[in-house]
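Case study.
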Amino acid sequence: LAKTTQPISMDSYEGQEVNITCSHNNIATNDYITWYQQFPSQGPRFIIQGYKTKVTNEVASLFIPADRKSSTLSLPRVSLSDTAVYYCLRTLPTDKLIFGTGTRLQVFP
Amino acid sequence: NAGVTQTPKFQVLKTGQSMTLQCAQDMNHEYMSWYRQDPGMGLRLIHYSVGAGITDQGEVPNGYNVSRSTTEDFPLRLLSAAPSQTSVYFCASRTGSDGYTFGSGTRLTVV
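After joint prediction, the assembly is written out as follows.
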């Protein structure tokens, strides 16, 4: 089961926009891209999901280009409370979620 | 709705002991999964279920059994605990195309 590829860690400052890119070269036709957020000592929390183009909700935006080989999670104006691990996943047709190592985002004052 | 409830929150076992981690959801979700997360690592899928009576193996199923006799419950059984099973265990559920809802986890230590 192929996992996605994303940076191990990123640093940002409060008020900045953060873009986390995820690579999924072998994405299948029926796969969706889903992002989860995990704080220490908590279970992951669903953030956003998309198939292609752009999806936006109250928390984030997700950009998926036409070839769908990558995607970018955009967090506008981050705060200290956005410090967490962010996981990019291919949502398989069989509904299993296979997690990679995620991106550790550290937001500084 | 209570969401996904996991019990116990903490557990210490001796090597060779068996136990069951409980997971219950009150959202009538079809899909349920069990994950383990070792320190500093991502989550690894142990077992999952797409509905009552249907289960399948994930990435790391050895040493664990599951059953899904009802929609609400998805217990995870450790047959003979080993120190390598020391981890945090998360249960999750979803319905349709929605994202998974995760429980708060069970922290298991095997000595």
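Observations recorded in class. The longest strand of chain B covers residues 43-51. The CA atoms of residues 47 and 57 of chain B lie 5 Å apart. We will return to this complex in the next lecture.
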